[in-house]
Amino acid sequence: MTLSLLRLETVRMLRDPKYLALAVAAPIGFYLLFATLFGGGPTPPGELPGTIEIMVAMAAYGAIWAVLSTTGPRIAEERQTEWLQQLRSMPISAGTVLGSKVVASVLTALPAIVLVCLTAALAKGVTLTAGQWIALVIALWLGSTTFAALGIAIGFLVGSDVAYPLSYGLYMAMSALGGLWVPPAILPTGLSDVALWMPTYRLATLGWEIAGGKLPDLTSIAILVAWTAGLAGVAFLAYRRPRIRRHRIRRPRASQTPVVVVPAPDRLAR
């Protein structure tokens, strides 16, 4: 039952036109555009070539939206159509249902990452060692789990009419602040400081370090883990919210007004 549910969730997500357009096609198109405009200049010492730096940023960009779009809006829609209630009536635990959604959403990030990297290698001649390619894909793939927790929280907190624009707005804001569109170094001082704490920046940093032949920074890993734990806690509370509300509903208290019992009058003796 678990494998069948996981397969069902994955196939449904991969067939979504919005996923294919925004999580796969858009990052590839943006990569080709930005790498052509900004990736051909000389590389300063100690920095990555523009084609590689943009590749990592766009791979992370696609992976984040793949995970976020297949959790938040979809869960909110399934709540509205009562699909989740139907699943709960089956012999499947709630943990299995949510776990299948998380695994399926993270699986959808893999095509976005791999196809951007493949485009960079074929169209722009990006070359890395086999170990670097594998480590890069795995790091970006596992790091995208953070955004699955955010998507679950959104899906259980808001309705279907709000979930999609909220997810997309947060996605664009975090991408801009996290250095996926422009390097954090050129942002104003306040925003550049914020970027260092964004999960989007730390996810891309893992990829940049691996592509540069370095070991992943423990600070980036720690910040991503902290974000994942915090968002997972919010997601759990959002999921439990309906049950908490039901427990708080109390039955109407009995009236405290004393009831006066009037005995029936005795039958008068004739």
TrEMBL record:
It comes from the Bacteria. Residues 4-200 form the ABC-2 type transporter transmembrane domain. The chain crosses the membrane at residues 20-40, 52-71, 92-121, 133-158, 170-198, 218-239. It is found in: Membrane. It is a multi-pass membrane protein. Keywords: Antibiotic resistance, Membrane, Transmembrane, Transmembrane helix. GO terms for cellular component: ATP-binding cassette (ABC) transporter complex. Its main location: membrane. GO terms for biological process: response to antibiotic. One of its GO terms (molecular function) is ABC-type transporter activity. InterPro entries: ABC2_TM, ABC_2_transport, Nod_factor_ABC_transporter. This is ABC transporter permease.
